[in-house]
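INSTRUCTION: Work out how this chain folds

Fields: amino acid sequence; protein backbone structure tokens

Chain under study, with its fold:
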Amino acid sequence: MIGSRAVRFILTGTIAIVLCYQLFALNYVGDIKWRTEEQGQSPQFVDQERHTGNVSPALMNLPEPKAPGPRANATFVTLARNQDIWEIAKAIRSMEDRFNHKFNYDWVFLNDRPFNKEFKRVTTQLTSGKAKYGQIPKEHWSFPSWIDQDKAREAREEMSRKQIIYGDSISYRHMCRFESGFFFRHELLMDYEYYWRVEPSVEFFCDINYDPFMFMKQNNKKYSFVLSPYEYVETIPTLWNSTKKFMAEHPEHIHPNNSMAFISDDGGKTYNNCHFWSNFEIASLDMWRSKPYLDFFESLDKDGGFFYERWGDAPVHTIAASLLLDKNDIHFWDEIGYYHAPFTHCPTSQVDRERLKCSCNPNDNFDWKGWSCLPRHFKLLGKKRPEGWETQQDE
């Protein structure tokens, strides 16, 4: 039987251990500080233990979050609303786990309305780089003065009757126009050279063990993609007519080694509706800021198709990249597994999927299905299709 003196000794020792642990924990938490970003932006969490060497046991086995070598002047860009918070949280977590925890690139969030505190708090804690939050200027998210409101309303009503996706949406049209002609002019993006667009709800399936931004820079690539479906014809009935008018007025802007054969099967008479899906794109911001592209966008904008029809930023970006760039400036990322409803890009090669620890089902890979334009891109560049593509065609 243990005596009362022994019991008191055990209790005293236990209490002392607990108090020591609590003092250690308080000392650790006390070293965690908040750094407020300039211009009233969201605070960024800074863990001082990472930099002083006084690492807590919980962090002992975690790798130091730093980029292994030089980085490009680049950022992620997300257009989101406050109500998208948990869908973008999943997308950020996917990107950070697969890539950015090793490279710590910044993340720019844009919204036509102010971001609320919860959105800033959640997304700031998820990003390994600096998170920045900006509001879109009213003039970049509204009807331009030359748009006939009655004509635009009638177009929306007609598309609604035809049940065309987003056919009756005003905000979707503002979004497409903004992504086509204004996002690269936002003040938060002016100091960057490259961007990677990430949307809510997307998923990245494979480890990315190199830096795509540096690949773009070192190989002089201007635009890149992972998915290339056909556009809905009903949304862009006069887009190619406007494009041909631009080509006639500005032949000096058309690159002699362009990708016309990717977007037209008859030398430019008609558009075959192939486009790069712009919800994923890694590209040069300087390309969109160039005079050829600004002239192209201004010409399209004056024609009013963003509002009289439902022109998307994806076909606009695709046509511009195909006509204004050297065809070798455009890159396809086979190694980056990606999902945006309803399409999946999964690396074709089994060897690549295993090497990159991909979690996607290769049978879901869209690349070689009947509605994919990727074979045209390979043919244009004279590239050999990856091993195993035959097994991923439509049955």
About this structure: The chain is about 40% helix and 10% strand. Residues 5-12, 14-65 have pLDDT under 50 and may be disordered. Residues 264 and 272 are 5 Å apart (CA to CA). The two ends are 78 Å apart (CA to CA).
